[in-house]
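The instructor's notes for this session suggest beginning with a concrete chain rather than abstract definitions. Hand out the sequence below and ask the class to guess, before any prediction is shown, which regions might be ordered.
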Amino acid sequence: MTVRTLSRMSVSPLIAGALVFGTLAFAPPSQAAVGDAALFPMGTNAAPQDVVAGPDGNLWVTNPGSNTIARVSTAGVVLQNYSLPTANAGVRDITVGPDNNLWFTMTNANQIGRITTAGVITAFNIPTANSQPYDITTGSDGALWFTEFAGNKIGRITTAGAVTNEYALPAGNTAPWGIVNGPTGSSRVYYTSSGNGFVGFLTATGQFGGTATSSTGSSPRGIVTNQGNVWFTMFGLSQVGNLVNDATVASIPIGQQATYMALGPNNTMWITTASNSVMQLSDRGAVLGNYALPVANAQPAGLALGPDSNMWVALPGANAIARVATAAVLTNSAAPTVSPATGIAVGSVLTTTNGTWSATPSSYTYQWQRCTSTVTSTCATIAGATAITYTTVAADAGQFLRSGVTAVNASGASSPAYSAPIAGPAATPTPAPNPNPRPATGPTASIGSGATMELDAPAKQKRTKRKMYDVIFSATDAQGTVTLQFRSGSKRKTFTGLPIKDGLVEFQWKVTRKWPVGNTSVVATFVPASGSKYTAAQVTDTVLIRN
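After discussion, reveal the predicted structure:
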């Protein structure tokens, strides 16, 4: 297992350095195997007890040692510590209520607490004195239900803070520990009675039921519902149990004394053990892995599936919380989108959204692509376009563009999710070739786009002899044809359709015996190919014809 221990700086939003086997590193890792752990200190003597994923995308941690509740990002950064109004309140377990607030138990204060995501705390007294509330869950009736470890009762509190009922456990049931909402449609809460090895349920109307485990010394503690089944830990027997038909218990040895229990990705179950480890179980209770924690005597307690699809564990003995990688790589459920989607010109700044993912990523990477059509197989990566924004360039004219977003968490990088291709800048219209170029004034002329053409004629030529006439283009991509015309008085000789090859036209002219002696004007006319960025032009030079 890879060990990563990270420190923090007060409530700074910066991720601090990490000591990894004596080497300075930074979190999160690019890839983590299942069970890899990273530690995040909660403060001196914080002794965190429980953790839950909040409705705001952060983690909420109870710290009885420092008498606070911490709001922590999925990067492990403590964003804020909220002090409890009662000294030494003994804050313990925490859950998300039906009102999207966080609800928690305070064993010493004998209270149930509520904290909003803005940090406003309200405490509500429990009528039974010294009841020692332990665990708390949201019921199907829209209220919160909690165990009273010393009071031997199950309590019910509304989201307005009214404790409406305290149901005394059936005779012989003692020390209720964990509690969970029952399977869908059951209208029950299920609880563990650790003192006498009993697993029971309580209906919304106050009716109890359940069964004893295989031993009074089983000490059942953590409890979850998984796909309609009720599962719980049996600390005293190093087993987990499955409550069958609310009447019998199917026991599975796991080789560890287990306390808390929580659901993980893909219907897995995760538990904390007295052997300083975190264990992963299948949905049928089979042990998939047992992962030792990287610090001795961490005393792992409450744990929860985080918004990033990793398990987060409270470690009171280490004054820290741990992020344990589940190897659950993120999947995309809604593709990213690009804006603006219309009216794009060269120089427009495009921005992509991140899309929606199966859990909250710790970071994202980006890659923009250029496509020749809306068919995605025509798309290719744009070099260097790796930011959340992209500024269009001339090469995008007449093309299509799309963004690619990759989500990253501690378990690694996802497959990229792509936006739908959108039309890039409109292609620049190609000016039609000028059929009437400006009359030649010399041997050199501009053909536009910063390029020129030049006529290179011999100074002298004899009748009946051949000589080379060159038309040279400074742009080797000039395409089209050249027309050469020889003029002497009223006499004309024209040669059309001379091809341009690599920016050059070479033509040999043989002067006839009857061609006039004296100066002959040579005119070269460039006719650009259709769609060319160059324009028609004309150049001229003079050759002396002799006998």
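Then share the key points. The mean pLDDT is 90. The chain has no helices and 51 strands.
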